[in-house]
Design brief:
The protein is mainly α. It is 34% helix and 6% strand. It has a two-stranded antiparallel ribbon. The N and C termini lie far apart (30 Å). The relative contact order is 0.22.
């Protein structure tokens, strides 16, 4: 396996499908909502290339899903394509 990092935009619905069910970390979504408001989306999600599940970013995906469901506008650096973030 090559030791390389690259950035790829993915639809929020696709990221939601890849969330690791056994993620042990609790997230303070209120803090994340504030961060999205103040700074936008600045820390990329990490995906395990071997199994396709999220390694890092579960709270950010949950926060983005909540914001979209509430009708909030997308944060800075979140692209919208065909109505999906």
């Amino acid at each position: 396996m090559e030791d390389r990092i690259y950035v790829e935009y993915m639809a929020l619905t696709e990221l939601a499908k890849r969330m690791w069910a056994d993620n042990p970390k609790d997230h303070d979504l209120g803090v994340l909502h504030g961060s999205f408001e103040d700074y936008g989306f600045v820390d990329p999600i990490m995906i395990n290339e071997e199994n396709g599940e999220l390694l890092k970013g579960h709270g950010r995906v949950q926060t983005a899903m909540q914001r979209k469901a509430a009708g909030d506008p997308p944060s800075k650096r979140i692209r919208v394509r065909d109505g999906d973030w």
